[in-house]
## 1
Amino acid sequence: MAVAETSPLHQFTVESLVPIHVGTFNLSFSNSALFMVIAVALITAFLVLSTRGARLVPTRWQSLAELSYEFVAGMVRENVGHEGRPYFPFVFSIFMFVLFGNLISLIPGSFAFTAHIVVTFALALTVFIAVTLVGFIRHGFHFLSFFVPRGMPALMVPLMVPIEILSYLFRPISLSVRLFANMMAGHTMLLVFAGFILSLGVFGVLPLAIDVALILFEVLVAVLQAYVFAILTCLYFQDAIHLH
Amino acid sequence: MDLQSARMIGAGLAVIALAGVGTGIGAIFSSLVSSIARNPAARGQVFGLGMVGFALTEAVALYALLIAFLILFV
């Protein structure tokens, strides 16, 4: 699907920076991969450098690093409880990766790797498989009792169980499309309004003002979507561990 | 009718769904504000839940917007 240069969707095209071909597989290092590496490098630098020489009365950067840790730890503790502690690194990694990915994409000239359905679907599928595996390992086949909500009359079971199963299987799709559509719509909207700035001449101040407000809104959406992804992961873990 | 015009009409029809989403998000925040007004101490818990509700509802808006973009550009 070749997108025209003037289309607002052109910003999402993946270009290979370092071509690497293994047999028939195209494993090129793309601009998407570059920004993922940048995001991980920034997260690592932020966490490692901020907590170097950790003091009891924290410095500003150390406070920020501890804040992000405590935020996700509190989220896992509240939503999954004590049995959720082994899954904290997973939730923390996902939260920081999505958060930094979303925020980095707001820098002009950068690339939004979370605005690709393949990336968000990979993350959501990982969460789905992890949660389902945890459920089966903990409860064995009793995990299937999750699809029969508590206190349901036996007459409704043949009707409700397929609906419950379907809504469970819909989780990776909704989780991935939520993040993907938010990011893609936000960035596309920014570019569409930006296209109007020059063509309107003097009145181009209006789309410019709208774009400034939109970038503020996009920062909020970036943080909120990372938070929602993480908290839904926690809620899915709670469903798998505590069933009903 | 040529393809481009049909695409524009399709995209316009697809975003009619956002009316329902706007109502839903307004309902969430209206109940958030009244519950904080009744019990300001519950703000911490209620706010987090309100944000989750907002994001889940907005996801539906973005499914509709996604279809509109698909119709328009793909």
Note: Chain A touches chain B at residues 1, 3, 7, 9, 174, 177-178, 181-182, 184-185, 188, 224-225, 227-228, 231-232 (CB under 8 Å).
## 2
Amino acid sequence: MDRVILHVDMDAFFASVEQLDNPGLRGLPVVVGSPAEQRGVVAAASYAARRFGIHSAMPMGEAVRRCPGLVIITPRRERYQEISNAVFGIFERFTPEVEPLSIDEAFLDVSGAQALFGGGEDIAQAIRRMIREEIGLTASVGVATNKFLAKIASDMHKPDGLTLVPSTREGILTFLSPLPVGRIWGVGVVLQRRLNEAGFMTIGDLQRTTLPVLDAVVGRHTAEQLLRLAYGEDARELQTESEEKSISKEHTFSRDVRELERVEKMLLELVDEVGMRLREKSRYAGTARLKVRWHNFKTITRQQVLNPACCDDFTLRAVALALLHEEGLAGRAVRLIGFGVSDLQDRPPEQLSLFGGDDVQRQKRERLSHSVDQLRRKFGPDALRHGR
Amino acid sequence: MKLRIEKSVLSAGLQAVQNVVSSRSTLPILANVLVVAKDNGIYLSTTDLDVSVRCKVEGTIDVQGSTTIPVKRLSSIVRELPDSMLSIESDEKDQTSVMSGSSYFKIVGLSADDFPSIPEADGEFSYLIDQGVFREMLRKTAYAASTDETRYNLNGVMLSFKEAKLTAVATDGRRLALAETEMEFPDASDADMILPSKAVSELMHVLKEAGNLRIYPRKNQVIFSFEGTVLASKLIEGTYPNFRQVIPSQCEERVTLEREALLTALRRASLIIADKSSATKLTFDANNLVILTMTPDVGESRETIPIKYNGKAITVAFNPDYMMDPLKNLSTDEISIELTDNLSPAVIKSDVPFLYVLMPMRVD
């Protein structure tokens, strides 16, 4: 039987939340983000703002040039998270199979929910209605037989749209055919240009070609993947919350930083936040990853396997600093720093020692990290900081 | 120097010494074997400055003298020579000619004067023990020594001569193997020494099934002497942990098992293990031992062994490699396992004076 996958995408989420809380902003060009003097970028733009060509990730200076009357609102993350939780709560009334993509979009596998709630279209309409009536926001939904098609569909009739993708092979091919190749998941600017130069403008152009021809343009691996997607084939499973694969945090400095000490300080704060989330979920990290974006936007990641897998701040901090020091700043200025853990697993089996060794140390570190978490939960994140 | 020697005799001598060479290229002579032909015999010596070994081989000396020759090269040449009798001659430039039947080799060596001196085993006090007994004690304990260089004091076998007994102990902090034998020596000669693993493996390589072994304790050094062979080793300087303290004096339960049956079951169980940090679970229950191994994304296995047991049910997890190590190195048919609970050490014993303390793994 075909799967039924929904992609639910909140319309201009941050901006819509601001307009919900402040009705005076409705219909105005509104963006959420930090002001231009702090080198902010647009995090979300209302539909009125989008008519000026403003889109997310655009530098704020550029947005203001395009729309001098633009209303700029400083993000209120906690409020967005609160609304997001309410939206995800609605999803969970229909299925536990929810894969969050970000704070405001998710895949839902409702294949098993149809007996209770009707077909994919009925469920999509019900979800849209509940979000509108209970929260006061609009969402666009794509309904299809896989993630790739559902994601494309939700974007077709934005805002407040519902798009159904046919489930027959013929219907899928017809649905995809007129779309530009850039809509395919994984096709970025460079690949799109190369495809366009070779005469592939639409997904239909790809459907009509053969593997050897496409192979010559983009290489075997990419060609195979593109053809599969051009035919609307995508067998990826949902990655639901319960099997979260990674946790990460990053920070963009308000101005580029050259002092190692300041980068270290921020990195350690990120490590502590990641560690706390990890411990909240009672998970252990098998891999730690450092991310650095230099002033020229060149971005690197460096990772380290953790054996045994761990969850305490002491180990994570030591690994994060070691990764940073190994890379070194070498005079380069840092724009963004990030830290993440992946290969999350249950508590690894732990070899006990005869004379009081590593295991005792590790237990102490874990206990201490948990105690710090409790204090921070009670008195706020700044209640307690590690000394250096 | 000029001598005649049987190929098999020289080959056996080189076998005994050629493992003790240094890879340090700063001292090329440490890759050489020192050959000394003196009135009473032919001596082959190697050293890596920590461990030195010298053995005596039989042959006919035509001209006395000495030289050093790259040992790996000499050894592989000797192995391939056609005739059973070799004649060896070195000149004043330390070039050594080796002749055998229609074959002729010339090997460039280094002067014997530059070879580090090898300690002599003579005079003073020595312990006397049977070679076979001592080798067996090393074999039953050496595998438990730590290879972690940051725990250098555990990188060997502890030999404790005390109260008319020799106790050999090795541990890596997670398990501990101990073998004991009674000996005769004066109380004043009690001594503890940590013998580095390199010397331990050389001794296991060169010691015979039987025959006298003399052990000469020196300051920071020990010398083993047997049948024309002398092995000297530096000792590990450092404090050995108080091993007697971690041997449980009494456990709550005891079960007797066929060694071979347990070993083969564990060997099969370990086929499902993904890495060194994995555990296998042993459940001792009424007349059954169940060995359960589960590795996420790999699979699971279950082995059931009938046992005579009527104690409380205990489930305890171990690293299967650590559990197999003593079983592989014992030769008795039966072993006993003593247990208390899932977080306390287990003790494996056999009817010979041997015990093995193994810490469990904590699993959820």
Note: The longest helix of chain B spans residues 7-17.
